[in-house]
Design goal:
Layout (H helix, E strand, L loop, with lengths): L1 H20 L9 E4 L5 H12 L3 E6 L2 H9 L6 E4 L5 H15 L6 E4 L15 H29 L2 E5 L12 H20 L5 E7 L9 H15 L2 H24 L6 H12 L6 E4 L1 H11 L3 H11 L8
Parallel strand pairs: 1-2, 1-4, 2-3, 4-5, 5-6, 6-7
Helix pairs in contact: 2-9, 4-5, 5-6, 7-8
The chain binds NADP nicotinamide-adenine-dinucleotide phosphate.
Length: 318
């Protein structure tokens, strides 16, 4: 009986492997628009798809980033500057894309641009801290998607949204996890709505990777500023310096554990854009696959216990 079961599971995996290997045709005719191409995953994906022969439309936050990317890629790749927090910038970029793709429509939209903040307890922050991050990571994704949706529908193409394992388990305070939970929710509803039109929506959930978004020096500096300049006297009494020091140590340790191999993420993005049968969700990185994703399926009390035992404790606890 166990042998039959193992054979059945093996057969299912074999079928899935075969199904996922099939690639869409006419890739060199397809346009893909990627946000946040100055650095990190967006930059690598733009170069990777360019090498594969696709027509890449790369949006960079700065002209400097765009110039550097153009210098490393073929003439097929075109760049535009885009700030996803500004409606006029998104409208201009959408018009720019429309002029390039014409009647073919846009095959791929990759919502990759994002920022992070130092992880801190929520009560150290202000509403504006949350607004700043949600504007880029969530509202930016939504507005860019709404502006380009008619072009993606025309091509019966793909939307690839970059979330995070922090969109599955909320391990620290601040706007980052909230923004990624929002990306997950937006993508789920979008996938169901767009399935009627042959458009596929994929969510990328990376673990921790060494990019500029995870910079322990900047995070520690942010944390120090928050503590020195903004923390109220009550917060300072409750948490104390020892808590801040051990929080800083955790941030530095986390950076050391980050994976350097960004291709684990960009290969998932590429698969979502080029496979006939893309997955709905991709977990990228061993930490995501072996730790954070399984953790997201645990009962809440167990997740709470894991976080509790691994987090620094305020000085005045009950
Ligand atoms: N690295 C990780 O461990 C990790 C894990 C899970 C999810 N992610 C997600 O992956 C995505 C890419 O991040 P990354 O790790 O590759 O970091 P990154 O190298 O900092 O890339 C983020 C990109 O977004 C751009 N950007 C920032 N604000 C923007 C704005 N307002 N409008 C347009 N573009 C903007 C940045 O431009 P500048 O370089 O000019 O600032 C940069 O090119 C993000 O959504 C991030 O949340 C990262």
């Amino acid at each position: 009986m166990w042998l039959y079961l193992a054979a059945l599971v093996g057969l299912c995996y074999l079928l899935r492997w075969y199904r996922e290997r099939q690639v869409v045709s006419h890739l060199p005719d397809k346009f893909v628009f990627i946000t946040g191409c100055d650095s990190g995953f967006g930059n690598l994906l733009a170069r990777q798809l360019d090498m594969r022969g696709l027509k890449v439309l790369a949006a960079c936050l700065t002209e400097k980033g765009a110039k550097e990317l153009r210098a490393q890629t073929s003439d097929r790749l075109q760049t535009v500057t885009l700030d996803v927090t500004k409606t006029e910038s998104i409208t201009a970029a959408a018009q720019w894309v429309k002029e390039r793709v014409g009647d073919r429509g846009l095959w791929g939209l990759v919502n990759n641009a994002g920022i992070a903040q130092a992880s801190t307890p929520n009560e150290w922050l202000t509403k504006q801290d949350f607004v700043d991050i949600l504007n880029v990571n969530l509202l930016g994704v939504i507005e860019v998607t709404l502006s380009l949706l008619p072009l993606v529908r025309k091509a019966r193409g793909r939307v690839v949204n970059v979330s995070s394992v922090m969109g599955r388990v909320s391990l620290f305070g601040g706007g980052y996890c909230i923004s990624k939970y929002g990306v997950e929710a937006f993508s789920d509803s979008l996938r169901r709505e767009l399935s009627y039109f042959g458009v596929k929506v994929a969510i990328i959930e990376p673990g921790f990777f060494k990019t500029t978004v995870i910079n322990s020096e900047i995070f520690v500096q942010n944390l120090k500023e928050l503590w020195d300049r903004r923390a109220s006297s009550e917060v300072k009494q409750i948490y104390d310096e020892k808590f801040v020091a051990s929080y800083m140590k955790t941030i530095k340790l986390k950076e050391q554990k980050c994976s350097q191999d960004l291709s684990l993420v960009t290969n998932c993005m590429e698969h979502a854009l080029t496979a006939c049968h893309p997955r709905t969700r991709y977990s990228a990185g061993w930490d995501a696959k072996l730790f954070y994703l399984p953790m997201s399926y645990l009962p809440t009390f167990l997740v709470d216990a894991i976080v509790y035992w691994n987090s620094p404790r305020p000085a005045k606890v009950l």
